[in-house]
Design a protein that fits this description.
alpha/beta; seven-stranded mixed beta sheet; rod-shaped
């Protein structure tokens, strides 16, 4: 038998408690609990007498075989009716049977005598497996849960009986099974061999046992009780049973039983873990597919919002461009078209009335500043804040989640359990991505667009704008110096006209600079759109990671259970 070291039962129990967080494992909780209890008993009962359960159909001769093995009349025998309605434990004096008593079995003590063929064991006589009373199978199941070996007693009609096959399938991997074909004195030698072959075939096909390793003995329990071996196989049965009862073999039997229970735990947990991982993979794929479908609608919604904010982006581009210029045109760049036009009008009015021109200039500057602030707030509201119904974003959020939520709900689970958000949370994530993309557009996007423009403008546009202004200043300075030296002094009208021309040239320079910035706002918007797409991709990765983290404690505990062996 396999001598693989066994893990501590409490470690297995603790891991299983966490692994039961997996929804697909929860329906198996009761059975897994029984398996772990069974495993713990197999590990703990190292030197105890062998516990042998006799199971079988009505009239198979279980009680007769028990009396034959014990060498004394312990159990009431019957032929035409079930005589055992509850499990009865026959234990040698001094044997610890507290665990068996907990199952509700009646405990009777006996003193093994010299006439015993296989005395000194703990025998458990169980109710019939094919009884119409289903509680009989429950009693037999509880007894076999606490036994080490099952003697499966059969007559010719119960070899392949469905109730017996179904019952034993639960224990085949975690109990030493010995098949006993009773009433051999009523069968020919050929019939005995045919029935034994049938037993091996059933054990192989239904229980997964190696056909050549299935122990089957054809005997007559009644004849054996009277000291006769009518088939010549009762001696072989006793030799096999006495081998099982030796301390070394009994320890290996319990070790094998514990390994069988652990293997069943492994098989159940593995199937559940694979089912959970497959569900998470389908959910993640559905979420990715939904996000891909929703992305187009979200991009269109973001583009529509950027168009509403285009005026502010253009003004912000001019403002940052003005910060790189030097000269009067730089101040004009900070103004909108309306502000620049106001300064031009102020220059024209100033030719007739200087105070009126100054008033027009001041008024246009104030109006432009107020308008710029209002436009910035309106742009941020248009892009970041939801519309009255925000239908586009809400529809996209529903599209992104619909398939994934449907996949999870089809498994009878709450989507939140697997990390799939609801529509409101998804909307908040989309709005956060929109706000982040807008902040990037209005700052970094604009800055990068202006930086790209400046690499050319500093050599072309700046000289084109400032050289006429420098020429005008040089000419005015020359006239003033000449008038001062040669006389007469220049009249006030000259300075007013020179100032008006200077303002017009500065305004024209600002308009030229603004014209050279054509397309910069669109490039900033394009950068913002790219940023929004990246934000959606990041959101998709985060949602995928949330799904990957779904049920993580239970999945990790399940993997640790599978690694125990």
């Amino acid at each position: 038998m396999d001598e693989t070291p066994l893990p501590e039962p409490e470690a297995l129990r603790s891991l299983l408690k966490t692994a039961l967080e997996l929804p697909s494992l929860q329906p198996h909780a009761a059975r897994l609990g029984r398996l772990v209890d069974d495993y713990a008993r197999g590990v703990a009962r190292k030197d105890a007498p062998l516990a042998v359960a006799l199971v079988g159909a009505t009239g198979a001769g279980k009680s007769t075989l028990l009396n034959a093995l014990a060498g004394q009349s312990l159990s009431r025998e019957g032929v035409d009716r079930p005589t055992s309605t509850a499990a009865t434990v026959f234990a040698p004096d001094g044997a610890a049977v507290e665990e068996l008593a907990k199952s509700g079995a009646r405990v009777l003590r006996y003193a093994p005598g010299p006439q015993a063929l296989w005395g000194g064991q703990v025998f458990i006589d169980t109710p019939d497996l094919n009884s119409v009373a289903t509680t009989h199978r429950d009693v037999a199941r509880a007894a076999l849960e606490r036994a080490d070996v099952a003697l499966v007693v059969m007559h010719r009609g119960s070899v392949a009986e469905a109730s017996q096959v179904e019952f034993l399938a639960e224990f085949a991997r975690r109990r030493a099974l010995v098949f006993i074909l009773n009433f051999a004195d009523e069968l020919s030698a050929e019939s005995r061999e045919t029935l034994k072959a049938q037993v091996r075939r059933v054990a192989s096909e239904q229980y997964g046992l190696a056909r050549d390793d299935v122990p089957v003995f054809a005997i007559s329990a009644l004849a054996a009780r009277d000291g006769r071996d009518v088939s010549g196989e009762f001696g072989a049965l006793l030799f096999h049973l006495r081998g099982l009862a030796s301390q070394a073999v009994a320890a290996r039997v319990r070790h094998g039983n514990a390994l069988g229970a652990l293997d069943e735990v492994h098989a159940t947990v593995k199937a559940s873990l694979e089912e959970t991982d497959a569900l998470l993979a389908r959910t993640k794929a559905a979420l990715g597919s939904g996000l891909e479908k929703a992305s187009e609608g979200l991009r269109e919604d973001f583009d529509a919002r950027l168009k509403l904010a285009h005026g502010h982006l253009a003004a912000e581009v001019r403002r940052q461009a003005g910060g790189r210029f030097w000269g009067p045109a730089a101040w004009g760049l900070r103004l909108s078209v309306w502000g620049a036009s106001g300064l031009g009008a102020a220059a024209l009015v100033g030719r007739r009335s200087l105070p009126a021109g100054l008033a027009v200039a001041a008024a246009s500057t104030v109006v432009d500043a107020v308008r710029g602030h209002t436009r910035a707030r309106a742009a941020e509201s248009a892009v970041v804040e939801p519309f009255e119904d925000d239908f586009g974003a809400e529809s996209a959020a529903r599209t992104a989640l619909a398939e994934a939520r449907s996949v999870v709900r089809s498994s009878g689970l709450d989507p939140a359990l697997l990390g799939v958000p609801d529509v409101e949370l998804m909307l908040e994530e989309v709005r956060a991505a929109r706000a982040s993309a807008w902040r990037y557009t209005a700052t970094t996007g604009v800055g990068e667009a202006v930086a790209g423009w400046w690499r050319t403008a500093r050599w072309l546009v700046l000289p084109l704008i400032n050289l006429p202004l420098l020429a005008l200043l040089g000419h005015a300075g020359y006239r003033v110096a000449r008038a001062y030296v040669e006389g007469p002094l220049l009249p006030l009208d000259y300075f007013v006209n020179a100032g008006a021309l200077f303002a017009l040239l500065a305004g024209a320079g600002a308009l030229v600079a603004s014209a050279s910035l054509a397309g910069a706002a669109r490039r900033a918007g394009a950068a913002g759109r790219s940023r929004f797409v990246e934000a959606l991709a990041t959101l998709g990765r985060r949602l995928g990671e949330a799904v990957d983290d779904g049920l993580r404690p239970g999945r990790e505990a399940a993997r640790r259970i599978l690694a125990l062996r």
